[in-house]
Amino acid sequence: MDFSEIKKKYSWVGFSFFLFGLTMEGAAVLLRILLRNVDDRILDNSWVVFILGLAPIWAIGFPICLLAASRVSSVKPEDHQIKPKYLLQFYMMLVFLMMTANIAGTIFISIIEHVTGLTIENATIDMIQKQEFLPSLIFTVILGPIMEELAYRKLLIDKLGQYNKRYAIILSGVMFGLFHTNLHQFFYATIIGFLFAYIYTISGRVRYTMILHMTFNFIHGILPMAIVKNLDLDSLSAISEGDVMNPEVQKQVFELYTNPAFLGLLGYGLLIIGLWIAGLVLWIINHKKIKVDDSNSPLPIKEGKYIPFINVGMILFAVLTIAITVLEIILLNIK
């Protein structure tokens, strides 16, 4: 069968996201050049940091991507309701999958660091940790998830799900992981992207994935950061290395154990462990049910297995995002 027209659709959507990444990165570089002589006190403001960091992505790159992708028609998935109890189950499975992927990713990164001698930092998380709570909440818990779900779930799946739902879900996850241009985030972002894409595909309601994404970013991002900010980590290190019989060390231990932030951190740790176990159980019970019907897709699974991935547009997107990821690692090590 001739799938050349469908291949062109995949390639053009991939090229649209390539333009997204290219213009986003170009605008970010230009912005850094323009701001190099600006007072550091202005650039230390958390609101300014987030606005300058996200403007090239969502005010420049994404509109260009939308405009380019408009050449491919959109077909929204069928509309179906998902009850709150099932969304909760999806969330718990997400926790299990995310934590498992994060562990695997950490091991992989450790091997890369050992082999290459490079230090691979999580620059995005390091940046967010330095910011104030309110702007972090607004930009990373509310605005970020909304825009990311519109781009990597609604736009991508509306364009490509009509040809094959399964391949659209795979592309949504992998492209979402690559979009972060951060090796630490790639592994768990990809896994999360798969399940978010599945939820949007079976429901046709992007608000479900937005809600889950917001919940995820708050509970697993902003909340632990806020707790840790209220702990004296230097004191914690000194306690671990000190003599427990020393009265001064004992005083520090008492202050640590009675610190509400420390108790909050312990409670948070227990919550995450409980969610991981619940997610594991739910995944074992339900993972075989997580599937889509592609029996009548214009692009059959077997005959078209290379078409969604081996095309000019998708290859350009992958090469660009991987190159940016590698370049950022190299630049961080040079500094």
Strands, total number: 0
What is the tally of helical segments?
A: 13
Low-confidence stretches: none
Mean pLDDT metric: 90
Structural class estimated from helices and strands: mainly alpha
Largest sheet properties: none
End-to-end Cα distance, whole Å, is 53 Å
Alpha-carbon Rg, integer: 22 Å
Describe the structure.
This protein is mostly helical and about 325 residues long. The chain has 13 helices and no strands. Helix 1 packs antiparallel against helix 3 and helix 1 runs parallel beside helix 13. The N and C termini lie far apart (about 55 Å).
How does the SSE layout of this entry go?
Blueprint lengths: L3 H31 L5 H4 L2 H24 L14 H33 L6 H7 L3 H28 L4 H15 L3 H21 L2 H24 L3 H9 L5 H11 L2 H27 L25 H23 L1
Helix pairs in contact: 1-3, 1-13, 3-6, 4-8, 4-12, 6-7, 6-8, 6-9, 7-8, 8-9, 10-11
Keywords:
mainly alpha; 335 residues
How do you describe this structure in short?
With 335 residues, the chain is mainly α. 77% of the residues lie in helices and 0% in strands.
